[in-house]
Amino acid sequence: MGHQHHNHPDHHDNHDTDIDWAEMAPLLVAQAELFTPLYERALSWLGTEVTEPGLIVDAGSGPGVVSCLFAETFPGARVLAVDGSEPLLDLARERAARLGFDDRFGTLAGELPGILDDLDYPADLLWAGRSLHHLGDQRAALTAFAARLAPGGTLALMEGGLPARFLPRDIGFGRPGLQARLDVLESEWFTQMRAELPGSESETEDWPALLAAAGLTHTRTRSFLLDLHAPASDRARAYVAASLSRLREAFGDALDPDDRATLDRLLDPDDKASVHHRPDVFVLAAHTVHTAVRTP
Fold first, then answer.
1. Under a CB-based contact definition with an 8 Å cutoff, are residues 269 and 244 in contact?
2. Residue 11 and residue 250: Cα distance in Å, rounded?
3. Which CA distances in Å does 178 have to 238, 256, 261, 266?
4. pLDDT value for 13
5. Considering the entire predicted model, what is its pTM?
6. What is the pLDDT of residue 5?
7. Triad 53, 57, 62: Cα angle to 5°
């Protein structure tokens, strides 16, 4: 189902919106690890509202990087990673065992939101990190999420924010504004992906209003920044290269020849102007978290 990730298309045909989550595992792990400072700030903010949770459910956990951050942030909590991909849950269990959380870490495989009916007891905190948008009827899914909260429990939804930026607007070759043009293609892909989901329903993405419509109260919203300034680390460069490579594969035919040539130069490790070498590569992104509470 959903995972902590950007809206990366992952097929060569930009009309194909199916996603092979197991294939994406390395990128999902690399991204979540790179974005750990952002997630840590978000979880610290959640900790001011959710003080001693007994059960934390990560709905759409993917490979469990953020699930394990929850286990670290809330040492008294049991954490349950829920996802539709068994290969990703295998990675989550391996990660939890490696970090010493396996005695209070579990997984649950199945499609959201229905699989949450299998919870043994309600959640004190249910986190949906950029996973809701992979469910066709988001309003119904939020209502189902809310129903699985304990009285006084919190639903935390990470949706929205700003597209990531890796490079200056003018990189010294090609037409300035390459990433802005890629944003347009990603947005169109995202709209098509949502339209093709089973039971897809259009919604105005007013997340606090949708949380209130699910019967929750005390909505809050806050955005968190990842600012990895230039010159980027090797790990950040690898993430940037992987991200741009996937976009090149997905949208190559939709790009004009100049933009294709620009991307090819940026991705060529033998080119000193590529993201592998240039000194002005950075990672700047913002993710937004919305929370609401089930009234006791």
1. no
2. 5
3. 19, 11, 11, 11
4. 34
5. 0.91
6. 40
7. 140
> What are the backbone dihedrals phi and psi of residue 15, each rounded to the nearest 5 degrees, phi first?
-90, -10
Could you give the C-alpha distances from 286 to 6, 223, 241, 275, 289, in angstroms and in order?
A: 11, 6, 19, 21, 10
How many CB atoms lie under 10 A from the CB of residue 57? 29
Tens-digit pLDDT profile for residues 87-108 = 999 999 999 999 999 999 999 9
| Dist. CA 12–CA 106, nearest whole Å | 35
Closest CA to 62 of 13, 121, 106, 21: 21
Question: Measured between alpha carbons, how far is 6 from 186 in angstroms, rounded to an integer?
Answer: 10
Predicted confidence at residue 15, as pLDDT, reads 38
Rounded to whole angstroms, what are the CA distances from 91 to 32, 131, 135, 144, 224? Answer: 13, 18, 23, 26, 26
Give the separation between CA 295 and CA 217, rounded to whole angstroms: 7
Cβ-contact 290, 211 below 8 angstroms: yes
Higher pLDDT, 92 or 252: 92
Tokens found for residue 227: 């600012």
Mean pLDDT value of segment 115-137? 96
Q: Are 155 and 227 in contact (CB under 8 A)?
A: no
Kindly state the DSSP code that residue 173 receives in the 8-state scheme: S
CA distances to 5, 141, 176, 241, 293 from 138, in Å: 18, 5, 36, 32, 18
SS3 160: strand
Calpha distance 22→273 (Å, rounded): 32
* Cα 144 to Cα 216: distance, rounded to the nearest angstrom: 12
d(CA 143, CA 214): 5
Q: Within 10 A of 199 (CB to CB), how many other CB atoms are there?
A: 9
